[in-house]
Amino acid sequence: MIFDTELARQTAEQLLQIKAIKLQPDAPFTWASGWKSPIYCDNRISLSYPMVRNFLRENMVKAIREKYGTPNVIAGVATGAIAMGVLIAQEMGLPFVYVRPEAKSHGRKNLIEGHLESGQSVVVVEDLVSTGGSSLKAVEALREANANVLGMAAFFTYGFPVSEENFEKANCRLLTLSDYDHLLEQVNSNGYMDEITMETLRQWRKDPAKWQG
Fold it and tell me: Would the pTM of this model clear 0.85, i.e. be above it?
């Protein structure tokens, strides 16, 4: 669910301007999954741009408060959402924890870092949602720790059907500042790409696992 359509376009434009989102249909990226992709999104780049960083923080705080209220704790998904999650928690005056992809193999062998009490309400912050697999592992870990997960708030999602299915199966609400559809709207309205390239970008999202550019 997009928080606000105009904000979605503004967020996409800001991420494009700082090259946190790169579009290269003619020289596709290869994701860790092996998928070929005309787009690469790394929202951590926003941390190096104070104006964009503040824009994202302020609007995410607004979105969380409006859609989820005020949780007891903000949780970030490691590693991409740790820094922005801390900034959001600081702005809201809330405790912060983060969830590792897997438990540490030494020390206290924590999966969740920070202090989380049983029954506390949590909003999970994520920088980017693709299929939802790694994001929902964090939700599962928090639920196993007896947290009341109100939902997830992400800065960007590709909007893959499999992601929507995964979040529905997990009974987890997903709130985002922007998504692939609004990104394409912004790219098209500003004339970043010609129509043939725009069609390539649209086709990729239909079946990214088989797309070869």
Answer: yes
